[in-house]
Structures are given as structure tokens and as C-alpha cells.
Amino acid sequence: MDFVKPAEVLQSMVEAGESKARMNRVQMLIRGFLAGAILAFATTLAYTAVSQTSVGLAGALIFPAGFAIIILLGLELVTGNFAVLPLAVMKRRITWMEMLRNYFWVITGHLIGCAFYALLYGLTITKMGTDMSNPLIQTLIQTSEAKTLGYQHLGGAGIVLVTIKAILCNWMVTLGAVMAMTSTSTLGKIVAMWLPITIFFAQGFEHAVVNMFVIPAGMMLGAQVSLADWWLWNQIPVLVGNLIGGAVFTGLGLYAAHHWGNPVKISTRLATIQGGRSGLASSDAGPKLGTRS
Questions:
Q1: What is the pTM of this model?
Q2: Measured between alpha carbons, how far is 292 from 194 in angstroms, rounded to an integer?
Q3: Which of 78, 85, 133, 182 has the greatest count of CB atoms below 10 A from its CB?
Q4: pLDDT score at 219
Q5: Secondary structure E strands in the chain
């Protein structure tokens, strides 16, 4: 059986958060760049599927392919990190500054990767800027405007709405990252993570990294969206909502479900190994002291 028990999954979450925080910034930046570009690939694949089939669910069923690639290759997706790093902070494995450092460099990598793919994809679907007839051009423009100006039109209620949709989104996205830890086989990981990602994408919730591609891509193609519109009416509240969804409903939620009030402490493998060695040293020391006396 390749099933991993929930208590062991929680242990893996803490260890993952600790490991991610310990990476150097170049690794974070590169892994964030690759993850952002791959998720952008998956987004245009999903839009292509919808365009070809006229079935919205088709895009949701195929979009998780990008997420699976990111998880299996050990790349950095900040929305997934929103669940595991706060848990590692709570268990005092890392500091708040180490967590924020990871978020900063990974988000920076996402922005560069998404913009890079947006530029190349825009040149592709417009045939180097000579043909604007591809239906996906209008899809990106309309989506970009809907994700910014659509909320702006609602005023304060728009900020609340986009934040709620971001919370619901990352509740599922972080569950996808965690579900991948419930199996030790590649196929098991893919199937497990596919389910929550399909749920989020099919319902049009707000994902920060997807938006780092979709909105700039629409702007490059002619969407009437400014940088202020992008960040004030979408990117900032979506990042906040994604953080709440991941940290509270997945990280803290699973901890409360399996360890709240439980006297058994969660420890990393490193701590367990060190503790074992310490215990061994103590047991070795006992007889030696006894023989001297």
C-alpha cells in the first residue's frame, strides 16, 4: 500500500515548510520562475480546451496537469507554501522572517516566469503581432478586464468578493499540495492532487499565480487595465485571500483536526535522528559511568 496516514502527512507538511524556508534565494527565484511559467502553460491549455469544446469543465479537467508537473519536480508555488510555511512557523521550525523571505523570492520568480510566457504566447497567437483573429486573444482580454475592472465596478464589495474567491481557491489548491503527500507512488500523487485543483478551477475562483499570467497577458494584448487596476483590484487582495485560505483552512485546519490537544509532538526527521543519537549517547554513557564507580 502506498497510502500515507494523515498524521504522517502533517509531519511531512512541517518538514516541507522547513525545507522550503532553508533554500537559498537563487533556488527560490528559479523554482518560482519555472513554476509560474508552467502554470501559465496549463492555463492557456485549459483555455484552448474550452475554446475547442465549448465545455467549461474541459478546461478544469486538464488544468491540473501543470500543477502535477510543479509538485512532482519539486518546484516552488507560493500558494502551496501558504499552507506549509505558517505551520512550520507555528511549530517553531522556522522564523517569520524566513517565511516572508521565501514568499518574496518565490513571488518574484512567478512574476518573471508568467510575464516571460505571456510575452512569448502573445507573439505566438498574434503571429508576431500581425493577426488578432485568434479567439484566445479575446478570451485573455476579457478575462483580464473581468478580474480587475469587474471588481472595481462593485467598489468595496468587489474587494470583499475577490478576497472570498481567493480564500476558496487556495483552500482547494493547498489541499492539492497536501493530497500529493498522501501517496508514495507517482500515479497516486497525481490522482490525489488532481481532485482539489479541478474543483477550484471549475468554479472560477481566484488564484494569485494564474492571475500573474492572465492579467498581464490581457494587458499586452490590449485590455484596458492599468498596473494600479491589476494590483489594487486583484493581485494584492488575491494574495491575501490565498494566504488566509492556505494557512487557516488547510494548515491550521488539518493541524487542529489531527493534533489539537494531542500530547504527541510533531518533530522533523532531522530532530528525530538527532534525538535518537542523543539517546544512544546517553545509554552508552550509563554503563561507562557505572563501570568506573
A1: 0.88
A2: 62
A3: 85
A4: 98
A5: none
The answer to whether 223 and 149 are in contact (CB under 8 A) is no
Report d(CA 222, CA 209) in Å as an integer.
21
Compute the residue count for the chain. Answer: 293
Evaluate whether 225 touches 215 at the Cβ level (below 8 Å).
Answer: yes
Residue 194: which H helix or E strand, with range? helix 186-202
Strand, helix or coil for residue 165: helix
> Residue 232 and residue 255: Cα distance in Å, rounded?
33
CA distances from 116 to 103, 110, 234 (A): 20, 10, 20
For residue 72, give the C-alpha cell: 512532482
CB–CB of 202/56 below 8 Å?
yes
Low-confidence ranges of the chain (pLDDT < 50): 268, 270-293
End-to-end CA distance of the chain: 52
C-alpha cell at 17: 515548510
pLDDT for 96 equals 97
Q: Which conformational region is residue 75 in: left (phi greater than 0), alpha (psi within -120 to 50 degrees), or beta?
A: beta
Partnered with residue 3 across adjacent β-strands are 183
pLDDT of 104: 98
Query: What confidence tens digit (pLDDT) does each residue in 68-112 have?
Result: 999 999 999 999 999 999 999 999 999 999 999 999 999 999 999
Given a contact cutoff of 8 angstroms between Cβ atoms, the answer to whether 170 and 178 are in contact is no
Residue 65 near residue 45, CB atoms below 8 Å: yes
Q: Give the integer Cα–Cα distance in Å for 150 and 266.
A: 44
